[in-house]
Amino acid sequence: MTALLRILFFMLPLAASAAELRDYPAVQVAPHTWVIHGPLADPTVENQGFMNNPAFVVTKDGVVVIDPGSSEQAGRMVLHQIRKVTAKPVTHVLNTHVHGDHWLGNQAIHDAYPQAQIMAHPEMIRAATAGAATRWLDIMERLTQGFTRGTRALIPTVAVVESQTFSAGGIEFRIHAPEKAHSRTDIMIEVASESLLFLGDNVLNGRFGQMDDGTFHGSIAACERALAIPAKIFVPGHGKTGGREIVSAYRGYLAALLETVKREYDAGKQDYEMKNTVKTAVAPYVAWEGFDQHFGRHISVAVLELDAM
Predict the structure, then answer these.
(1) CATH number of the domain located at residue range(s) 9-250 in this protein
(2) Across the chain, what does the average pLDDT equal?
(3) Which candidate in 157, 185, 198, 305 could, as Cys together with 123 as Cys, close a disulfide (CB 3.0–4.6 Å)?
């Protein structure tokens, strides 16, 4: 290897780590809350692996970040948007579940604010430590063809549980931890003073994702729980922020699919035999991002769930 080639070879990891994610604007959705709405598509070279909805709440003393994105690069972009709003430090980071498109940006937050508490469900911490972190690092790097290279998995260290509350800079945050929902590691975060609920991937708006780690029954229950909370603003894990209607719409898909699968299952049909009937039942949702990719698998997951009952 020539001297020039050796220099170029050793520069490649540094160049990848230094890559910058394009800016996405932070939209103010409540008096102290901003959301960065990511693209709806799964991670790609084109979207640089960024696809979720990072958010932040500005308190009297600092900033609480929710789900800082899928990579070190995404986390840096989130910090850039925060600094357009406030110079206050990040004091807390909340990760809604174990899927890495939501939390691998922790690294950038920690590098900038090493004293910030990084918080998640105890099962999220356990699963990430047990191998999910490495798996998600590999997924993101592969799907972005190396754009996210250099990202490290900064696993949360502070566990938060059902009904726990904590205050940051005069604002109270309440944890709701639905069981067996989207990933079995999920939390939703209520900010009552903002009349707002961060839903994580328990509710998606305008797109579908994988259901392999969760259950339809648990996901429907999570939607019903969200609707029972007296909030006016609902921030989904993916898709635009909205009102109660986005929760009702996603619950409608889950319930229509599960109920139709159950009828077909009870009639003795296999998953491939019921596809057309189920598709008719969920017709209002066929234009959502990822429908063709995930629909067949959703039927199979629902059948496996019914098998286990």
Answers:
(1) 3.60.15.10
(2) 94
(3) 185
